[in-house]
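Posting this for the archive.
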Amino acid sequence: MASVRIHYLRPPDRETVYVQHLVHRAPDVVVTYVERTPLARPLVVDGEVALEPDAPAVWFTFPGAWFDLGRFHRRDGSFTGFYANVITPVEFIADDAWRTTDLFLDVWKGVRGEPRLLDEDELEEAIRNGWIGGELEERARAEAARLLEAAARPTWPPPSVLEWTLERCRRVLRAGRDG
């Protein structure tokens, strides 16, 4: 199974390279999978663990979109919710290498809750420090508002996200083929 290196810039200058399994590529969505998410500590939203260190996650990249979307789980594989990162559209610099920039805002929709806008404080800090501003700031806020509104509807997330479960990704990975 192929893997992809995602060059993820967090302004002002922190770049992290994430290596994930490429499990499905279509014109409208690319699905990647990470068996053990490299987190230092759990991601907690409203007192609930959204993602644990070393837990699996399925990621969805939509070419041209200003966000990506993750299906989050606990280490035992239990599903916790959907996490959308507001980012610049992914630049596919090679078949196995991508680049994007984090725009700080995120939307979380847990299994038992309403969608929540996260990390507004991080965006404000980035603006104060001059890391982003102008059109990029406006685009980040507009995309976060759009995602928050979409996540409140019963038709969200997109069908491809519902189709690519953790179990399906694991089956495809074991079989060594696109599913």
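Residues 3-169 form a domain with the FomD barrel-like fold fold (CATH 2.40.380.10). The longest helix spans residues 134-151.
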